[in-house]
Amino acid sequence: MVERISHWIDGKPWSGVAQRTGDVFDPATGEIRSHVDFAAPEQVAEAVDAAARALPGWRSASLAARTRILFAFRELLAARKHELARIVTSEHGKVESDAAGEIARAIENVEYACGAAAHLKGGFSENASTGVDVYSIAQPLGVVGVISPFNFPAMVPLWFVPNALACGNTVVLKPSEKDPSAANFIAELFAEAGLPAGVLNVLHGDKVAVDGLLEHPTVKAVSFVGSTPVARYVYETGTRNGKRVQALGGAKNHMVVLPDADLDLAADAAVSAGFGSAGERCMAVSVVVAVDPVGDELVARIAERMGRLRVGDGRRESSEMGPLVTAAHRARVESYVDAGASAGATLVVDGREVTVDGADGGFWLGPTLFDHVGTDMPVYTDEIFGPVLSVVRTPSYDAALDLVNANAYGNGTAIFTCDGGAARRFQNEVEVGMVGVNVPIPVPVGYYSFGGWKDSLFGDTHAYGPEGLHFFTRTKVVTSRWLDPSHGGVNLGFPRNT
Ligand code: NAD
């Protein structure tokens, strides 16, 4: 029996009949699990109207009342994290322990939002001028849109939704159509936590839903995460329509290994961050930059570890890496393996020959390693978003730095070295938004903010943490004087502070 997944609007499942739907697969079997309704412009309007109706009540609810609901949501999410992890695995394919990790990182963001009251305090300057006080207040924007990708169906929505709500906004969330169930689960938990109807709505669909949000005059801001071409489009269209937009795009993350690095640590990190979630992470390591003379030894240690990885159904505890999300995505990633081999890169481990602990129809592709990759090859220039790791060799630290800085993307990078001075130089000189030192491409903790540079982020505000609260509020500055008997009468000169 194929399930139907529908929108969550005004505190309940949408009861209409969709004109268009999409297939949602179980990537480990290749079978269709469910059909998801795709929003037409009428459903976009319904969701935005519900959010607009809920806005006056929610923005005027006290900070204490708003954060109390976030605390309750945090408790429910922690209590039901295994259930949510299973949902993520069944539609995305990542192994359950990895899905649980994504939820743990999501909970961090909810916890940060629970403390929003402390962060939303404005400034106050008593006696800025004689008898005049000046203070700032942070107010919500209104109805905001959140558009998320398939690869973190629980975490990425929760990068934005908790902070947006804590700030007093109401939200329309448009998750990926490839794994839509996590968003509904989250919305139901919020309702159980006491969130009033209409404050958080989930709209399913594709470009039609996204365009509807980008064009709707009531939507004041959009937070987007996805591939670079769509991020650029969302940024340009949203800002053209007068909205505040942060659009996080794709990545090609380089891990630089200097000759003095601990090579076992570096090889562990390259394999963990290269093949975790089958490489479908925006913070995956996709390029190892081996600075001479470490290349041969490093490649051997990486290949040895790859030989022990167990690929299989994410529901099995023995599996370390699951399938890719769809057959189409699998075919695209495989085409890069073909292209890398024909471009002349050395295919050290060929994932097309993988043996799998799972159903024949699953979207499997094993971990793949290329050595001697050239920077003009598509396997290097393009974001592959699969279990394909490329090793590029460079003669020096400077050549490695130039390579990273010349890349169009700037999401994350890492350096492996025992030389503190080299690491410090790298963190200063590299043109990338998030840097790891002996840590493979770290996702910053919830009280910092997440965001790349260059083609990895359009807009000027990063996601979650302090920048998230900044994104979801606008400030007002009030200059006030309470009547005193000494006012000086009419004066047409420009006011000076005395
Ligand atoms: P995607 O760009 O295909 O889709 C993202 C969202 O945009 C989805 O909700 C989708 O329905 C919608 N969408 C797709 N095509 C559209 C179009 N033409 N017009 C309007 N909307 C459209 O991305 P994906 O495949 O779901 O996710 C993987 C991508 O996301 C990778 O490029 C990855 O690097 C990136 N990503 C980036 C970050 C980050 O923080 N920078 C985090 C996670 C994922």
From TrEMBL:
Pfam families: Aldedh
One BP annotation, GO: L-valine catabolic process
PROSITE patterns associated with the record: ALDEHYDE_DEHYDR_CYS
Enzyme Commission no: 1.2.1.27
GO molecular function: methylmalonate-semialdehyde dehydrogenase (acylating, NAD) activity
Protein origin, superkingdom: Bacteria
CDD domains named among the record's database cross-references: ALDH_F6_MMSDH (cd07085)
Segments forming domain Aldehyde dehydrogenase: 18-478
Keywords assigned: NAD, Oxidoreductase
PANTHER family: MALONATE-SEMIALDEHYDE DEHYDROGENASE
Protein name, as recorded: methylmalonate-semialdehyde dehydrogenase (CoA acylating)
Species for this entry: Amycolatopsis suaedae
Lineage summary: Bacteria, Bacillati, Actinomycetota, Actinomycetes, Pseudonocardiales
